[in-house]
């Protein structure tokens, strides 16, 4: 086996061309290129502008409710009988998930750039809700593209978006999931490039989005690192997060990447198993290719056509992943493993019963990995799990999986 | 780089004093044989340059018509290997008409850039248009294509400003493809006055022919655009002509090649009138 090259730091990417090793880049139509370059310029100014950072900090604190708590999950810890489990409570943020962190940052950028219209894609609807929320707060019209399948399985969020004044456009091409929503959002963007800001919801897309979204989400890991040092006096032994496009995961992981003793595990949607096509484990079962503006691991056939995957969780139902994860996978720093639909469902029910917390199905994938791992670890060891969102949006899906109706 | 069929074609049309008619169709739509027949019917009907669409599952710059055509082609078993084979089969009968393949990068990347370029060149391909490869990504395919003797035709758009234009033109060869509007294929045609201004602006930076596409559907539009452009590209209208003779289950209700030929003849008359009427 090839020994991966170990850089001095895992936290320096991307390079100037937006590459993380061979991954990332700017694979977009010429129409979008000038805008993407302009976005990069504005972003580079904003990230070192104290006024921008102060406004973001203020909104994060008083509007979103940060910092989110790092909660010692005593019920889960006792039930699993091994490592101590901590949950990073992104579910307690305003709008109910980590997505608000990124939306607040990007809406300030949109304002700074003088854009007057917001578009977004959404899978589980959490990013759509967060986009609709910040658009309402800052007075922008907002159009959300959402796969028709997802519109069906995440009804509560569709209604929330409409209440917030957003227009929800169902997309019926493909399987009607996140990939198709992203295609349609890109088509809107090329058409309305003069006034429209595309608020991408995950750490994917053309440069500078993967870096920018990571920076807005890194508040998760930065806080968690400080909190665990304060609460336990040491770093955790393992940290775990679910990976759809990879924003909550990179947000937790990035501040820990150079803590070499911390084991980092990203969870992909294993769906109904990796044998067929009914999963979304692009890094476990896909290969590198180019889609949605970046090179990354993708589910595709031998002709380079993208394959529609499957996951019980709409937020993980995407055949690609952010490019930084692809690079972290190949460099060996982060392990990526699949969790099946039924394992996630069991973890969802367990957490609800022993913690009194209904987790998002996405987050339940991360918890399911801890269910496997914790019992193999010592009682003094520590696992931090990113509880990326709350599960209220998923109750219909879970009910039908349990053969119930309400 | 040596001259290609594209270079020779535009030189000849310049002498004739008329713009080129560039027609796009989707390779493999609705099946390989029918699609090859459509391709073969084009030059006789008046096409000067053929654009052969490579189907892709996620065509982010295309409207509903070309999306649907791509899906029909994929369902009919089209692959990149078969699209290359289509060039080979066509060349057995026609060694003059330039062929440009148009599509997205991933299928080529997965096929292998060097292998693709070698096979496509040997099959008789002249040029490539790859929507999701801007100049920033030239090392991927553009530079290797130029080395292989294949023209890399770049898209310039209304958002390509004066500062950026030289970068877009830098490694472009064959012709420049001006996208008439910010939008996806199949949208309504932009203001022709704006288009001819943009064409003039590009021509002041390059000696390459400038063709205009996106939104041109009728002979009259082809004439109007052809008054200032060196070529007029028609895509969605052709793909729609194919779709118009397909029943709800995809069965053919008439001959798609004939439907396309009828449309192309009309468009060809349009481009032939372009300069005549432009002078009065
Ligand atoms: C609660 C929650 N967690 C995770 C995800 C997955 O996205 P990402 O991988 O970008 O964090 C989503 C996406 O909708 C989500 O809503």
What does this structure look like?
The complex is a heterodimer of chains A (about 400) and B (about 280). Chain A contains 16 helices and 14 strands. Chain A has about 400 residues and is α/β, with parallel strands linked by helices. Chain A has a six-stranded mixed β-sheet with strand order 3-4-14-9-10-13, with helices on both faces. A four-stranded antiparallel β-sheet of chain A has the order 1-2-12-11. The termini of chain A are far apart. Chain B is an alpha/beta fold and about 280 residues long. Chain B is built from twelve helices and nine strands. Chain B has a nine-stranded parallel β-sheet with strand order 5-4-3-2-1-9-8-7-6. In chain B, helix 2 runs parallel beside helix 12. The interface between A and B is large, with 38 and 43 residues. The complex binds pyridoxal-5'-phosphate. The site of pyridoxal-5'-phosphate has 21 residues of chain A, from helix 5, helix 11 and helix 15. Pyridoxal-5'-phosphate (PLP) binds next to helix 5, helix 11 and helix 15 of chain A.
């Amino acid at each position: 086996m090839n020994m991966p090259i170990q850089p001095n730091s895992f936290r320096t990417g991307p390079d100037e061309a937006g590459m993380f090793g061979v991954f990332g880049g700017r694979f977009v139509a010429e129409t979008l290129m000038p805008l993407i370059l302009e976005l990069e310029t504005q972003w580079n100014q904003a990230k070192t502008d104290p006024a921008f950072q102060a406004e973001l900090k203020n909104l994060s604190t008083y509007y979103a409710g940060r910092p989110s708590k790092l909660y010692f999950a005593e019920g889960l810890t006792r039930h699993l009988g091994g490592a101590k489990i901590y949950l990073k409570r992104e579910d307690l943020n305003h709008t109910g998930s980590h997505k608000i962190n990124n939306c607040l940052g990007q809406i300030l950028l949109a304002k700074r750039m003088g854009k007057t219209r917001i578009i977004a894609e959404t899978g589980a609807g959490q990013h759509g809700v967060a986009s609709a929320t910040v658009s309402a707060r800052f007075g922008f019209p907002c159009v959300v593209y959402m796969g028709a399948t997802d519109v069906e399985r995440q009804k509560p969020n569709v209604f929330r978006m409409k209440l917030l004044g957003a227009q929800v456009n169902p997309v019926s091409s493909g399987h009607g999931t996140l990939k198709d929503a992203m295609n349609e959002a890109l088509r809107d963007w090329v058409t309305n490039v003069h006034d429209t800001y595309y608020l991408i919801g995950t750490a994917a897309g053309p440069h500078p989005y993967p870096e920018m979204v990571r920076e807005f989400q890194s508040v998760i890991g930065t806080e968690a690192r400080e909190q665990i040092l304060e609460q336990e006096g040491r770093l955790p032994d393992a940290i775990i997060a679910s990976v759809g496009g990879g924003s909550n995961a990179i947000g937790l992981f990035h501040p820990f990447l150079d803590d070499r003793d911390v084991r980092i595990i990203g969870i992909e949607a294993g769906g109904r198993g990796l044998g067929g096509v009914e999963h979304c484990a692009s890094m476990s079962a896909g290969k590198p290719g180019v889609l949605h503006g970046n090179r990354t691991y993708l589910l595709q056939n031998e002709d380079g056509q993208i394959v529609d995957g499957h996951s019980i969780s709409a937020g993980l139902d995407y055949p690609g992943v952010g490019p930084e994860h692809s690079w972290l996978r190949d460099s060996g720093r982060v392990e990526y493993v699949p969790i099946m639909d039924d394992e996630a469902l069991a973890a969802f029910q367990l957490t609800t019963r022993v913690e009194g917390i209904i987790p998002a199905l996405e987050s339940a994938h991360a918890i399911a990995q801890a269910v496997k791992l914790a019992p193999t670890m010592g009682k003094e060891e520590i696992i931090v799990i990113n509880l990326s969102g709350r599960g209220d949006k998923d109750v219909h899906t879970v009910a039908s999986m349990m053969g119930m109706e309400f | 780089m040596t001259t290609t069929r594209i270079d020779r074609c535009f030189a000849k049309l310049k002498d004739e004093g008329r713009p080129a008619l560039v027609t796009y169709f989707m390779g493999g739509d609705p099946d390989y044989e029918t699609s090859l027949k459509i391709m073969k019917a084009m030059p006789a009907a008046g096409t000067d340059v053929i654009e052969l669409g490579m189907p892709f599952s996620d065509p982010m710059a295309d409207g509903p018509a070309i999306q649907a055509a791509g899906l029909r082609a994929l369902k009919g078993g089209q692959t990149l290997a078969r699209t290359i084979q289509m060039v080979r089969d066509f060349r057995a009968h026609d060694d003059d008409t330039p062929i440009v393949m148009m599509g997205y990068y991933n299928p080529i990347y997965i096929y292998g850039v060097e292998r693709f370029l070698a096979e496509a060149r040997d099959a008789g391909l002249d040029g490539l248009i790859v929507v999701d490869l801007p100049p920033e990504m030239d090392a991927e395919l553009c530079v290797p294509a130029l080395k292989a003797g294949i023209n890399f035709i770049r898209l310039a758009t209304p958002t390509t400003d004066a500062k950026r234009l030289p970068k877009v033109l830098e490694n472009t060869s064959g012709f420049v493809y001006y996208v008439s509007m910010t939008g996806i294929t199949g949208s309504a045609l932009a203001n022709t006055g704006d288009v001819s201004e943009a064409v003039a602006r590009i021509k002041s930076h390059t000696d390459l022919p400038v063709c205009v596409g996106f939104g041109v559907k009728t002979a009259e539009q082809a004439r109007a655009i052809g008054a200032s452009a060196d070529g007029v590209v028609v895509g969605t209208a052709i793909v729609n002509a194919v779709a118009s003779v397909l029943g709800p289950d995809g069965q053919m209700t008439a001959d798609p090649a004939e439907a396309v030929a009828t449309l192309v003849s009309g468009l060809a008359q349009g481009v032939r009138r372009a300069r005549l009427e432009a002078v009065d």
